[in-house]
Amino acid sequence: MTPDPITVKPSEDVVFAFEKLMKHKISALPVEDQGKLLGIVTATDLGHNLILDNYRLGTRVEEVMVKDVATISPNETLKDAIEKMSEYGEDEGIINQLVVLEDDKIVGIISDGDIIKVLKEL
Amino acid sequence: MTPDPITVKPSEDVVFAFEKLMKHKISALPVEDQGKLLGIVTATDLGHNLILDNYRLGTRVEEVMVKDVATISPNETLKDAIEKMSEYGEDEGIINQLVVLEDDKIVGIISDGDIIKVLKEL
């Protein structure tokens, strides 16, 4: 996993969040306030809706974030992570990242790419 | 894999390519001309450089595409795919998609997410 992931505040503008994702070459931003995980926004969703002009000027992160965040704890297994990514995905898809929570604190984020990297070493 | 992936022409504007990626919620576009694979552009790279204003007005896909495309053939194994994703990645990273070529023709694209989906079923 990536420890101490970059996050965004719920009150930020979606354009700001999208720029942050692009700048740091990351695919998702956990939304947090005072250390509490409130949701997640992804580059795929924000980019899609921005391009199609689905947001109005000033749309905030909290209005569009996914609130049912897929999370995992640091002591769960690789198999758990793979299952959760499939379970939370829509239709035939998977979700591409899980927020790692320890005692309700965001300690990391794990992506499908992180899993492929580990599998390579097995 | 996703069969018959969406592609982009080398002469297209990078902004057009980025919009195409966002519109279709995909992470990479093989660059092809007359059926020949010439390169690949990713949402991560284009988005990063567009946000940081690294392109000039009218920059074309062929100027910025990655020419050394990681490819795989339809009869290779899941293990081969995982190894290639790691092999082609920079530093500690992996690349997130492989173009599937059969007799030099683009027949599909396989992503790290596709692999996670299959692993779930094993």
Automatic annotation (TrEMBL), chains A, B:
CBS domain segment(s): 1-57, 65-122
Source superkingdom: Archaea
Leader sequence residues: none
One of the Pfam families matching this protein, by short name: CBS
InterPro entries: CBS_dom, CBS_dom_sf, CBS_domain-containing
Keyword Iron included in the entry's annotation: no
Keywords, ordered alphabetically: CBS domain, Repeat
Keyword Repeat: yes
Parts of the chain that traverse the membrane: none
Stated name of the protein: CBS domain-containing protein
Organism: Methanothermobacter tenebrarum
Origin organism lineage: Archaea, Methanobacteriati, Methanobacteriota, Methanomada group, Methanobacteria
